[in-house]
Design a protein that fits this description.
This protein has 421 residues and is α/β, with parallel strands linked by helices. The chain has two domains: 275 residues, 3-Layer(aba) Sandwich (Aminopeptidase), CATH 3.40.630; 122 residues, Roll (Aminopeptidase i, Domain 2). It is built from nine helices and 20 strands. The strands form four sheets. It has a nine-stranded mixed β-sheet, sandwiched between helices. The protein has a five-stranded mixed β-sheet with strand order 11-12-20-19-15, with helices on one face. It has a three-stranded antiparallel β-sheet with strand order 5-6-9, with helices on one face. The longest helix has 16 residues. It is globular and about 65 Å long. The chain starts with 6 loop residues before the first helix and ends with a helix. It is an enzyme of class 3 (hydrolase).
């Protein structure tokens, strides 16, 4: 039996299941926040000026939430994350096919390891935008699509690392017969309960259907799709709801869409979305007040990182070897691919000490560049002290990722430590 309180990880599993896309993640986060007394503020409406309470706003798959405990805001404590995940995105005209098979035309979204999506039962989820401007979420949570692998009898080099052509080899099948223009979107509209003629736009993605699960003799491992980066979104929501005694320090959750493709959108981390919200929270067009507040603020950018891999230890730095189950990591890069230095490490360690959790360092091997996060982007956009953190996982960007089962709760404790210390 597990040797820890698994209530947080159980709740993460429910959050992941309810959040197959960035748009669903915002809706589920909003639902949880509203159940805790938070109020949604549309960007087009007037906002209460620094009034006590919890609030959130949503833009295009990104969500920013905050709570004010008392008037006189003097700083922000921001926990940053991202809501999107590498997958296949349905093209505007999806109906295609060949050799008697109906297929759905897709495009690669983000850094997808192609092989992990082969021979899996896939659903489809996303949003439809209607003629009247309404947005409708849809989730076909059952086997619908499949990207079939070429049988080894026809591909004797299958185990020799053969590359897949994203255009020719990754188009999923969904039926037999000749494709008919409009058939797929008619089906999706019917699933959403709307008239296909009213759908003027769509953002639809393939969905890995395997349910989250505990692994191992002692259930000390946790596997799911979208650990990158719903572990951080969920941790931030849980910490924001639990935050107390924050005084004039305002805790903020900022979870952005489009991180996996560079964040260059009107709602991504490179947009003015977060800065605009922070200025509205302060409630006054006072550059001096804003500058002083930001100078006293801090941000923790949370995203998953790579646990040391037992089959490929040579891919990791020999003196920094984070492992799943060892607690959150602080990510360090001399070239600032992660926004962490001495001041930032102190911010992280104070939060970790407040939370009473174990933690680790993550440094990329010199010969391997590694990824990056929203941390350097948001830190640069805002001119704010920013530290990069995250959980160590295996199989990052796969259709099935793996982490230590106790680590998600520790990450939420770290976020709460940031908010309350």
């Amino acid at each position: 039996m597990p040797r820890f309180d698994r209530s947080h990880t159980d709740d993460l599993a429910a959050f992941i299941t309810a959040s197959p896309t960035a748009y669903h993640a915002c809706a589920e986060a909003g639902r949880r926040l509203e159940a805790a007394g938070f109020q949604r503020l549309p960007e087009t409406h007037g906002w209460p000026l620094a009034e006590k309470g919890g609030y959130y706003t949503v833009r295009d798959g990104s969500i920013i939430a905050w709570r004010i405990d008392e008037p006189g805001v003097d700083s922000f404590r921001i926990f940053g994350a991202h809501t999107d995940t590498p997958a296949f995105k349905v093209k505007p005209r999806p109906d295609t096919g060949a050799a008697g098979w109906k297929q759905v035309a897709v495009e690669v979204y983000g850094g997808v390891p192609h092989q992990t999506w082969l021979d899996r039962d896939l659903g489809v989820a996303g949003r439809l935008v209607l003629r009247d401007g309404a947005e409708v979420l849809v989730d076909v949570d059952r086997p619908l699509l499949r990207v079939p692998r070429l049988a080894i009898h026809l591909d004797r080099g299958a185990n020799e690392g053969r590359a897949l052509d994203p255009q020719g080899h990754l188009t999923p099948i969904w039926g037999l017969g000749e494709p008919r223009e409009g058939e797929f979107l008619e089906f999706i509209a019917a699933e959403a309960g709307v008239d296909a003629d009213d759908v003027l736009g769509h953002d639809l993605f393939t969905v890995a259907l395997d349910r989250p699960a505990y692994l191992g003799k002692d259930e000390e491992l946790f596997a799911a799709w979208r650990l990158d980066n719903l572990t951080s979104v969920h941790a931030g929501v849980a910490a924001l709801i639990a935050a107390e005694r924050t005084g004039t320090k305002v805790p903020v959750l900022a979870a952005f869409n489009y991180e996996e493709i560079g964040s260059m959108t009107y709602s991504g981390a490179q947009s003015p979305f977060l800065e605009t919200v922070l200025r509205r929270i302060l409630g006054a067009d006072d550059p001096e007040h804003y500058a002083q507040t930001m100078a006293a603020s801090g941000m923790m950018s949370s995203d998953t990182g790579n646990s040391i891999h037992p089959n490929y230890p040579e891919k990791h730095d020999p003196t920094h070897r984070p492992i799943a189950g060892g607690g959150p990591m602080i990510k360090v890069s001399a070239n600032q691919r992660y926004a962490s230095g001495a001041e930032e490490e102190a911010l992280f360690r104070r939060a970790a000490e407040h939370a009473g959790i174990p933690w680790q360092y993550n440094v990329n091997r010199n010969s391997i560049l590694g990824g990056t996060t929203i941390g350097p982007i948001s830190g640069t956009q805002l001119g704010i002290l920013t530290v990069d953190v995250g959980l160590p996982i295996l199989s990052m960007h796969s259709a099935r990722e793996l982490c230590g089962a106790e680590d998600p709760g520790r990450l939420a404790d770290l976020a709460l430590g940031l908010f309350e210390h």
